[in-house]
Each structure stands twice: as C-alpha cells, then as structure tokens.
TrEMBL record:
Residues 44-86 form the GRF-type domain. GO terms for molecular function: zinc ion binding. Keywords: Metal-binding, Signal, Zinc, Zinc-finger. It comes from the Eukaryota. It comes from Aegilops tauschii subsp. strangulata (Goatgrass). InterPro entries: Znf_GRF. Residues 1-22 form the signal peptide. This is GRF-type domain-containing protein.
Length: 175
C-alpha cells in the first residue's frame, strides 16, 4: 500500500506525485478518513472484524469513501461497502477524462523510454564501430611509424656508404 499523506497532505499533490512516479494505487488513505471503522461497527462479512476506512483512487470511483476488509493482501476477502453515493454523471465523465489523460501520459512515457532505449542501442553500436575503427587506425599509424623508422635506418646506411665511397675516392685522388 502506498501512502504519501505525510509528505503530501493535499490529495491532488498525492495524485500528481503518484502519476509522476508511475505508481497509481487503487485507493489512498485520507488523513480525515482512515483507520478501522469503529463508530458504525461495519464488520467484514467473512472475518467478522471491523472494516477499514479507505478512499477510492481508480476510475469513476476516485474520491469516494468506502469500507473494506482490513485483512492483509492474500487474506483479504474483498468485502467493500460504499459510504459515499455514486458521483453524478458529469463528475464521472470528468474523472474518466482525467484517468484517460493519465493513461495517455503513461503510454507516451513508455514510448519515449522505448525510443530512448533504441537511440542508446544505436549509439552503443556506433561507439563500438568507432572504437574498432580507432583501434585499426592506431595499428596503421604504428605500422607507418615502424616503416618510416626502417626507411630512416636504410637511408642512414646508404648515406654512410656514400660518405665512405667519397672518402675512398678522395684518398685515391690524393694518393
């Protein structure tokens, strides 16, 4: 059971908080209407224990107070007795529109999350490709540097051979 009554004492704030968190409960605890029903002594039909006071938070029943089996989930028999009368049709239509907007918002968030996940997947693939290209480029640069060093060594050898031939020729001419 979700309860933010201490964090958000106003029911509208609670509803917006749940919607933003993506957690919409079926009922909520109202600080003015909570706990076990001891005044009317409405007993749960199956367990014979006092029922729990709750406020509906789903569909056209949103905001209506009711009494329900106070047993924990799994042992709860599903007993419900409405305290408030059914809303007028205009209120029910407004609630249906609001819940429709909530569902559209959740659906849009899911679609945005899927699109973001797809974008992240494509970016990860592109990063992996760029990493592979980078690794190949580094390898090619190392090969080029090694080849250039080999050419410098070969050039140095040729230069020393030419210098040696010049010295030999100079000795022959002088001698």
């Amino acid at each position: 059971r979700i309860s933010f009554d201490l964090l958000c004492p106003h029911p509208l704030h609670m509803m917006l908080t749940w919607i933003l968190l993506g957690q919409v409960p079926f009922f909520l605890e109202d600080p003015d209407y909570k706990g076990l029903e001891l005044d009317l002594i409405v007993l749960c039909e199956k367990h014979g224990k006092p029922s729990e006071r709750l406020v509906a938070f789903e569909g056209t029943m949103t905001g209506r107070r009711f009494l329900a089996c106070a047993e924990p989930e799994g042992q709860n028999c599903g007993f419900v007795q409405w305290v408030d009368e059914q809303w007028p049709p205009t209120m029910e239509n407004a609630l249906l529109k609001l819940w429709s907007m909530v569902e559209e918002s959740k659906s849009a968030r899911v679609n945005d999350n899927l699109q973001s996940a797809l974008t992240i997947h494509h970016l990860a693939e592109e990063k992996n490709k760029l990493d592979a290209d980078y690794d190949k480029l580094v390898k090619d640069v190392h090969q080029l540097v090694d080849f250039q060093q080999d050419r410098v060594v070969d050039f140095s050898y040729l230069q020393s051979a030419v210098t040696y031939q010049h010295q030999c020729r100079a000795e022959l001419v002088a001698g």
